[in-house]
Amino acid sequence: MKTTAVLLAIVLLAGCMVGPDYRRPDLTVPADWRTGPAQPSSLADLAWWEVFNDPILQELIRSAFDANRDVQVALARIFEGRARLGVARAALFPQLGGGASYDYTRPYSRNSFFLKSFPSGPSGSLLPEGDDYRASVDLTFELDLWGRLRRATEAARAELLANEDNWRAVLTTLVADVARAYFDLLELDRELEIARRTLATREASLDLQRRRAAQGLATQLDVERADAEVAVASATVRDVERRTAQTENGLNVLLGRNPGPVRRGAALDAQRVPPEVPPGLPSALLERRPDIRQAEERLVAANARIGEAKAAYFPRISLTGMFGVESVSLSDLFTGGSKVWQAGRTMTVPIFTAGRISGTVKAREAQQQQAVAQYLQAIQQAFREVEDSLIFHRAVREIRADRARREAALRQALVLANLRYERGLATYLDVLDAQRQLFQAELELASIMRDQLTAVVQVYKALGGGWMERGEE
To answer: Cα angle vertex 356, ends 352, 358, to 5°?
Structure first.
């Protein structure tokens, strides 16, 4: 009857878990976006290869998934988290161990109290001496009455999920970084094309001014000004070539490669962008953004560690057992008379720890408070990034239209300036001024075309798009 009562008490206590259960903090989520009302659909619902249609860019992103060092580190952390979860879970089960030993012993000396106690005095025949063979299986099983081991397993599982979300966050960032660097390269290619074309035009103009000066139709001042403009265009070509090489090197690092050239696909103005970038519902961002999910899993783990620490206030009870065989003769080791066994219970109770347990609990609670703040901060930062990217995307489309109109107007202005100069109605300085303005306008138009592409990248990343489970492609 007593045994039944003890077992019943153990079963009831086994369902007890000290420490707080996780509850998501109260959140303030906006109903709509600043740029307009929320919509159910989201750009992040699309896979990355549906957003970025350039086959070469898709190839580069796939290469980055396979060889990027940050992705490899993130995957290794997942493997580590799985192993740590296995270690934590193993403590919930009985632990078995085996052992075997051989000793040649003489446990008593001739002058020991045991032998001196015999009236006949010490005798060599009374000195036990010889072989001792032993083999046993030991069992240890901690009764998780207060949930210490279960809380540790809960924390390890949450940390594993956080590592998996960290991997997804790395993929999201990687897709955005590769796409942004690729579009930077296309924009630099466009700049280089403009700069080289401008350089050729200015060299032809310089040659013309030299011939006109030789015929007395132009001054040396016109020649020097034309020469200066050639130098500006030449320096621009060299600078763009430098920036192109450095951007290629940076992109190769993302791809896990050594520095070198990078293939291109369609030109900058041939890249297609989605006609619309619906942001979806603000509340959906909490589940879509892997960095927010990672922060919440870190909070879950920190919350579980509080219970693990509080369990140290209570007694720790373990069941122990041993079964084996022992014999002075190896041939008799596994006979019936050689069996030995032992079974028991151990309990340890903290009586005085000089504040160690309470200090650990307070530290875990402080870590949980940090995790709450970091989770809320991650949410706020996510909403800010989405709003900023949407504002940038809307503005850049309007700016591109303005810069395209400016570039067209300045191109026509240069034509008119040349006509007026040829007819003697304007100075060569007017032509140079028109050339400079058109050159700058062409470069700015190329830059805003790149910005329009990167704006889509920023919106896609901010919404949590760009990652996929392996095998989904």
So the answer is: 95
Containing 402, the helix (H) or strand (E) segment is helix 356-422
Q: What whole-number distance in Å separates Cα of residue 119 and Cα of residue 126?
A: 12
* Maximum Cα interatomic distance, the chain, rounded to a whole number of Å: 144
Residue 273 φ then ψ, to 5°: -120, 150
> Per residue of the chain (473 residues), what is the pLDDT tens digit?
554 555 445 544 555 788 899 999 988 888 888 877 777 888 888 889 989 989 999 999 999 999 999 999 999 999 999 999 999 999 989 988 888 887 877 766 666 666 666 655 555 455 567 777 788 888 898 898 898 999 999 999 999 999 999 999 999 999 999 999 999 999 999 999 999 999 999 999 999 889 988 888 888 998 999 999 999 999 999 999 999 999 999 999 999 999 999 999 999 989 987 778 888 888 888 888 999 999 999 999 999 999 999 999 999 888 888 887 787 777 766 777 777 778 888 888 899 889 999 999 999 999 999 999 999 999 999 999 999 999 999 999 899 999 999 999 999 999 999 999 888 888 888 988 999 999 999 999 999 999 999 999 999 999 998 766 544 44
Nearest to 111 by CA among 100, 95, 127: 127
The answer to whether 401 and 336 are in contact (CB under 8 A) is no
Q: Where are the alpha helices (DSSP H) in 44-109?
A: 48-51, 55-67, 69-90
> Domain 14-94+147-314+358-462 carries which CATH code?
1.20.1600.10
The Cα–Cα gap between 99 and 184 comes to 66
Cα–Cα distance for residue pair 309/365, rounded to 1 Å? 10
SS3 319: strand
d(Cα 198, Cα 205) in Å, to the nearest integer?
10
The dihedral over CA atoms of 326, 330, 335, 338, expressed in degrees to the nearest 10, equals -10
Rounded to whole angstroms, how far apart are CA atoms 254 and 176? 11
Q: How far is CA 302 from CA 93, 287, 298, in A?
A: 24, 20, 6
Q: Which long-range contacts (CB under 8 A, 24 or more apart) does 348-351 make?
A: 348/315, 348/316, 349/315, 349/316, 350/312, 350/313
- Cα–Cα distance between 60 and 50 in angstroms, integer? 15
Q: Which residues contact 458 (CB under 8 A, 6 or more apart)?
A: 176, 385, 388, 389, 392, 393
Separation CA 193–CA 437 (nearest Å): 17
Reading the block at residue 187, the tokens are 């924009």
Distance CA 162, CA 349 (A): 34
The whole-model pTM stands at 0.84
Q: What is the DSSP letter of 284?
A: G
Whether 449 and 400 have beta carbons less than 8 Å apart is answered as yes
Q: Are 24 and 309 in contact (CB under 8 A)?
A: no
